[in-house]
Amino acid sequence: MHQWMGSHKRFGAIRRRWTGLAAAVGLLFAAGALPAASGPPPGGSGTSASGSSAKGLSARASVPPTSGSSAGGPSDEDIHLEISPRICTLTGNDKQCSIPVHAQWRSKHDESLCLVILEHKEIQRCWEHYSAGTYTVELVFTQDVVFQLRDVSLEHVLASEALRVIREAIQYRHRRRQPWNIFD
Amino acid sequence: MARRRVGAAAAAIVCLLVATAAFAESECTASTDECVAVGSWSFSVALGAGVRTNPIFDGRDIPLILVPQFSYYGKRFFIDNLDPGVTLFDGESNTLSLVASPGYDRVFFYRSDLQNFFVFSPTSFTGNHSGSTFLVKPPPQSAQETPAGAQEFPQPARKVTYLAGPEWTFKRGSMTGQVDYLHEITGHTHGDELRAAIGMPIGSLLGGSVSARTGLTWKSASTVNYYYGYPGLYQAGWALNPFVKLGYSRPLSRKWQLDAFVHVERLGNAISDSPIVDRHYVTTAFIGATYVFHK
Q1: Is residue A147 part of a domain?
Q2: Residue A181: which of B256, B54, B99 has the closest Cα?
Q3: Residue A23: which domain range?
Q4: Contact at CB, B29 and A172, closer than 8 angstroms
Q5: pLDDT 10s digits, B218-237
Q6: Interface check A36 vs B, CB under 8 A
């Protein structure tokens, strides 16, 4: 009898330990899984702006010499292009970005070149024998927009910079169903 | 000892449920009937004709004319008409929340109850049961004499109460289930309620969808006594109220939809045996058009 009670107690203690272990494992799994479920939305970096207006970030860009560059042509390593803003964030029901974009370039030497916008071929601004230039344009766009500085023949890319479109990730969750409610 | 075992087992179950729910991410990727965008709110009003029968002796039925519906969903917090809550886990097939919900039975005694505001009608605030006395149904042998045979007693106060507790919603295929265990937190009834229900779409009809729900509400003796008992006259025990509901919904346009439903709840014996109750069933029926102001 005493032996049976002893076994019973030991069995109870083992069962409690297993139950406790199961609870601890459950909590551990939950803690490990929660951050993944509640982490930042994709694309939602700290540099993105809210609304369809864009953050006033700027960037400098230069590209390696292109194979087609002539020896007497502009030295594109010395040409720097900046655009502002760099990012447009679409939030909520925003369908497109509609913002003024400011482009600025400078070089150590006088250059003859053109600023083109790949997705808006109709926009083109050229300079002849200048070492710097600025251009501001109102743009409406839904995808990334690439700005390029090219030589006057428009064949060689001297500098390039992209204006990125970021769509704010909308999080969804389950709607509550209330069977006792009038319309649920 | 036994309590510790039950507690440990309950903790293990909750932890497993939590782990399961946390591992499976929400399947919601767009606004649908099942899913909403975090941070969104909605407001709609149904205009139509309907009624909720009143089981209280000599109580007036509650007409349904305008039925406003409001909800807001944050990432965790939500408010669904009069029910605020916090969602702890929102998984693919399990959702676990802590909710607060008003005590339901008061609607039969006070037309000014907030829940009757949500089924507002022109006569909502002129009920005959907000007075200082109430009638008790006469014994069966003098039924012929009603209402003259009814006895009049001082009306006990039935305060607005709120219950709070965990709510588990689960989905298996097209079936959705929900279980709430709620405890009264406003210090009036000190009672408990267990609410459980399952529901599923059962077909299409005339361009709309038909759904069915069934479930039950268990009310502890202290809850039932608070509403239907009377010291020295009737001491109630716990009650189990099963219900069935058939609903129909059909979109009419982007903002309008047709809604209709019939909800029948059978009152538990502890309630229907009360001398102030003279019906075994509460029927709620409505047909009308719902206008969605914001979604």
Answers
A1: yes
A2: B99
A3: 1-39
A4: yes
A5: 999 999 999 998 888 889 99
A6: yes
Contact assessment for residue B24 and residue B94, using Cβ atoms and an 8 Å cutoff: yes
The reply to whether A32 and A59 lie within a common domain is no
Q: Are B25 and A37 an interchain contact pair (Cβ–Cβ within 8 Å)?
A: yes
CA-nearest residue to B92 within chain A is A174
Test B36 with A175 for CB contact under 8 angstroms: yes
What domain count does chain A have?
2
Inter-chain contact B213–A34, Cβ cutoff 8 Å? no
CB B151 within 8 A of CB B176: no
Residues A29 and A106 in one domain: no
More confident residue, B265 or A33: B265
Helix, strand, or coil here: A68? coil
Distance from CA of B138 to the nearest CA of A (A): 32
The predicted structure's pLDDT at residue B15: 52
Q: Are residues A65 and A125 in the same domain?
A: yes
Contact yes or no for A173 and B118 at CB 8 A: no
A173 with B26: Cβ contact below 8 A:
yes
Residue A127 covered by a domain: yes
Average pLDDT, chain B: 82
Q: Which of A8-12, A127-131, B175-179 has the lowest mean pLDDT?
A: A8-12
A24 in any annotated domain: yes
pTM: 0.61
B247 touches chain A (CB under 8 A): yes
Residue with tokens 């109709």: A122
**Domains along chain B?**
2-294 (2.40.160.40)
Q: What is the 3-state secondary structure (H, E, C) of chain B?
A: CHHHHHHHHHHHHHHHHHHHHHHCCCCCCCCCCCEEECCEEEEEEEEEEEEECCCECCCCCEEEEEEEEEEEECCCEEEECCEEEEEEEECCCEEEEEEEEECCHHHHCCCCCHHHHCCCCCCCCCCCCCCCEEEECCCHHHHHHCCCCCEEEECCCCCCCEEEEEEEEEEECCEEEEEEEEEECCCCCCCEEEEEEEEEEEEEECCEEEEEEEEEEEECHHHHHHHHCECCCECCCCEEEEEEEEEEEEECCCCEEEEEEEEEEECCHHHHCCCCECCCEEEEEEEEEEEEEEC
Q: Are residues A75 and A144 in the same domain?
A: yes
Angle CA A18–A19–A23, to nearest 5: 115
Between residues B130 and A121, the one the model is more confident about: A121
Nearest CB among A36, A38, A173 relative to B36 is that of A173
The CATH number assigned to the domain holding A162 equals 2.60.40
3-state secondary structure of A18: helix
